[in-house]
Amino acid sequence: MTFIDTHAHVTAREFDADRDEVLARAADAGIRFIINPGTNLEDSRRAVELAERHPMVYAAVGYHPHDARLADEAGLAAIEELSTHPRVVAIGEIGLDFHYDLSPRDAQERVFAAQLAIAQRRDLPVIIHSRESLELTVAMLDASITACPEWRESRRAHGSRAPGPRGVFHCYPGDVATAWKLVGMGFMVSLPGIVTFKKPGNAVDVAAGISIEHQLLETDSPYLAPVPHRGTRNEPMHIPLIAQRIADVQHLSVEDVARSTNVAAYQLFGVGEKPEPRFTYPLKRSLYINLTNRCDADCVFCDRKGEAMVKGHNLKITREPEAEEVIAEIGDPTRYEEVVFCGYGEPTIRLEALKQVARFVKDRGGRTRLNTDGHGNIINKRNIVPELAGLVDAVSISLNSTDPQQYGALMRIDGPKNFAAMVEFAREAVRTLPRVVLTIVDLDDVDEDKARSFVEKEIGAIFAKRPFF
Ligand code: SF4
Ligand SMILES: [Zn+2]
Question: What is the pLDDT of residue 258?
Fold first, then answer.
């Protein structure tokens, strides 16, 4: 298990006496890469030099809002020039800090806008620092995206409604609702050791409330050391403490957090590499089975035709596995809480393989779940629910909407026909299988109360919501 510290000021003078030891300790603790943001031109040059000397370090360059008063035109031009260096992966850290006001606010705004323009010209992501200025920071980002909508647009995953990642709010100070808005604008968030503090402000709510795919890990060394080191000089080697806390509030394993945040850092900064596609993938205490990328639907919120990543797992398979291959990967199914048929694709398209694998799991005392769009009867041209009895312990069906027209629009299929088939499948499943859950995606225009009452009263199943992005 390795981690990426996406925000550590290893160039800070606090590390002058033992910089190499700090990096060696980080490597020993499993930190594979560190991104060192610059705070002004001199510090940005130091960041680049450090990155040249140490393969584990990458640099970001820019003027911190505290140092905005130092940024004249020549300085900003030098930052842009420096940003062409191959070890530079971002413009940062940049933004607005109205808490300390160490630079005049008009200078902060001018320099922030100028550096956003540099990031856009260079097609680089940004590392944002915002303190007591969130509203204006978001408004300036919004304006700059409007002025340059193509900024990192090519990195948008095909089929995804979320734009390609444009930057990260480091030490994100706001609430969950604003964080989701930022995700929609193509930003990630990262939270340092504050998540481990007794009084974490919004940090724990954000760490728990934003899906892990949109979070990065950071220490913000030498500041904000996590508990139990609070008050001492922070170092990148403390990342695992932060990752563990985020895992706890996300109800994930620390491996899930490490893998997912590494992939997020790869997507944003191009650091590290994309993982290989997988037929089976562990999440929390369960094992998931990825039988196919084929689907009869084409949901507007689905990334099946895009990157098809889930919590750092690459599900974009280039061929479909044989049941025997999957069984070999499962091994002893009792090691897992559940074995779940779920990928970017509809598992009942591979009904025979699904049944063979489920039979193996049940024969060896494991538990199974099927995540499906509920169109298995149409796909297989027969009622398949009786065939699942004894093989599938739980089924989770995407309800998406109780309105057949909206259902069709969201899934880009014939709404009325497929909605009726899905409801029939759900009713039959309630009669036949031990546990049936129907889910909707958390979208503003989907009527949640109506969906809940439909699921509980008319179908007799359990209702659940899943996040949009
Ligand atoms: S049914 Fe599932 S796999 Fe198919 S397009 Fe919709 S979300 Fe993606
Ligand atoms: Zn910083």
Answer: 97
